[in-house]
Specification:
The complex is a heterodimer of chains A (about 240) and B (about 110). With about 240 residues, chain A is an alpha+beta fold. Chain A contains 10 helices and 7 strands. Chain A has helices at about 35-45, 80-85, 110-115, 140-145, 155-160, 160-165, 170-180, 190-195, 210-215, 220-235, and strands at about 5-15, 20-30, 65-70, 70-75, 90, 100, 105. Chain B has about 110 residues and is mainly alpha-helical. Chain B has a single domain (about 5-110), classed as 3 helical TM bundles of succinate and fumarate reductases (Up-down Bundle). Chain B is elongated and about 50 Å long. Classes of the chains: A alpha+beta (about 240), B mainly alpha (about 110). At the A-B interface, helix 10 of A face helix 1 and helix 3 of B.
Chain lengths: ~240, ~110
């Protein structure tokens, strides 16, 4: 059934200099309308001062994630018809990150934790060496491949109650990336990596509630990756290798 | 707030508690089925090093396990952190150890010579 002629009641979080409130807009309903379409309509047709972040619009770049009716979503690939509650939408900045303005959050804490988790490739060879042979059927490679399609959107970080309770917790995205590198046979940073995820903000804080896996738009399972890190660090402590 | 060492301590104590809990339940069922009264149970536990080790190790594991779990809850739900968190956690561990240790001592060696 066509949605033309109907309107959405859209509450959008407005914030500047730490002072925030919801502002309601009436937005024309369209067929095949995404949440990002709604935000763009408000910015282009109702209030050009609305700040938000997006880039690719096709679910590749991870820039446009926001809280939609209380849940973290990639807005460019989330259809209004899937999440609207009786033609009502509440759109807010991502949870667990500081707001810069309106719907745009500061992603620095999120990416700082990737560095803190040693989620950076440490090569064993140079560009002058031959390509390392990778067997796609190797169990370690399969584990790495299962975790590798992260687009850094921070949806999992916003969904995580442990991050909300413990600001030092590295979070599901950084730990998921760390797990993919733990399983990369070309990498030489494992000792530092396992040490980095074993501290007070490390992988052992995860309660396995799986909010990250529930909301990950690419259907990754960071909880599973974090469980792998728990096993790897435990084996390392006991001297059992990996 | 868990790091690797607290995590391992909690997992290892859980591994100790699981078989001891099953053993405790089995003994309770046996005692009830057999119709043992308090005096008959105490006659078996008094002076027994085996029962002291059985329940003593359970109390020790519970004290460590519960204190670490409560530490995480106090940090995440109540916002307690730093030295205060450590003092309360250690205090809870020692409190449970004292309570449980007192009970274990009472049924094994406290009245053994009486």
């Amino acid at each position: 059934m066509s949605e033309s002629g109907k309107f959405l009641q859209v509450s959008i979080w407005r914030e500047q200099d730490g002072d925030g409130h919801f502002e309601t807009f009436e937005v024309p309903r369209q067929d095949n309308q995404t949440i990002l379409d709604v935000v763009a309509w408000v910015q282009q047709q109702a209030d050009p001062t609305l700040s938000y972040r997006f880039a690719c619009r096709v679910g590749m770049c991870g820039s446009c994630a926001m809280m939609v009716n209380g849940a973290p979503r990639w807005t460019c690939r989330t259809h209004v018809q899937k999440v609207a509650d009786d033609n009502r939408l509440e759109i807010a900045p991502l949870r667990n990150l500081p707001v810069i303005k309106d719907l745009a959050v500061d992603m620095d804490p999120f990416f700082d934790k990737w560095v803190a988790a040693e989620a950076v490739f440490e090569p064993t060879q140079t560009r002058d060496d031959p390509m390392a042979p990778i067997n796609p059927q190797d169990p370690m490679r399969i584990a790495a491949s299962d975790a590798i399609e992260c687009i850094n959107c921070a949806v999992c970080y916003a969904a995580c109650d442990v991050v909300a309770a413990n600001p030092d917790y590295l979070g599901p995205a950084a730990l998921n990336r760390t797990w993919s590198l733990v399983n990369d046979i070309r990498d030489d940073g494992q000792d530092a990596r396992l040490k980095a995820v074993s501290g007070d903000g490390g992988c052992h804080n995860c309660h396995a509630q799986q909010g990250c896996a529930r909301y990950c738009p690419n259907e990754l399972n960071p909880t599973l990756s974090i469980s792998g890190l728990k096993r790897a660090t435990a084996k390392s402590l006991l001297g059992w290798g990996q | 707030m868990l790091n690797l060492h607290l995590y391992m301590a909690q997992r290892l104590t859980a591994m100790i508690m699981a078989p001891l809990t099953i053993g405790h339940l089995a003994v309770m069922i046996y005692a009830v089925q057999g119709g043992l009264n308090v005096a008959e149970i105490l006659a078996r536990t008094q002076g027994s090093l085996a029962w002291f080790i059985f329940y003593g190790s359970f109390v020790l594991a519970v004290s460590i396990h519960a204190a670490i779990g409560m530490r995480a809850i106090m940090f995440e739900w109540l916002g307690i952190k730093g030295a205060v968190l450590s003092v309360i956690s250690w205090g809870l561990c020692l409190f449970l150890l004292a309570l449980g240790g007192h009970a274990v001592w009472a049924v094994t060696f406290a009245g053994a010579s009486a």
